Amino acid sequence: MGGCEAAARTRSIYDLWDDRTVEILAAIYGEELVQELQRYYEAAGKRGRLPGVRGQAENMTLNIHGPWGIHARLERAERVLKELVQELERADGAAQAR
After folding, report:
1. Which of 11, 44, 51, 95 has the maximal Cβ count within 10 Å?
2. Which residue from 9, 23, 27, 10 is spatially nearest to 74, judged by alpha carbons?
3. Which residue has the higher pLDDT, 70 or 39?
4. What distance in Å separates the CA atoms of residue 6 and residue 42, rounded to the nearest whole number?
């Protein structure tokens, strides 16, 4: 697989992961862009093309490296998702203590 094909496949896998993550968060927190969904979006969500990036599609911003590359987005997403899990666990523990 050539470099362009590998990059396209990586973007495609990332897009699937991102879409499923948003679906799970929406199922847990509701469809509105509540604070938790907004935190995820700010950390890793897809945006339109960045200035200076050629191309048309939204995924043109999804390089592998760089501050908005896939690796950096996954690292930020992991931190946010771990925080959200900890908050849910604390809320569940508090509810069970009542």
Report:
1. 44
2. 10
3. 39
4. 26
Phi-psi region of 66 (alpha: psi -120 to 50; beta: other; left: phi over 0): left
Residue with tokens 């908050």: 87
User: For the chain, give me the number of helices (H) and strands (E)?
Assistant: 3, 0
Q: Among 4-18, 57-71, 73-87, name the one with the lowest average pLDDT.
A: 57-71
- Distance separating alpha carbons of residues 25 and 82, to the nearest angstrom: 13
Q: How many whole angstroms from its chain centre is CA 42?
A: 8
Q: Are 63 and 69 in contact (CB under 8 A)?
A: yes
pTM: 0.72
DSSP state of 32: S
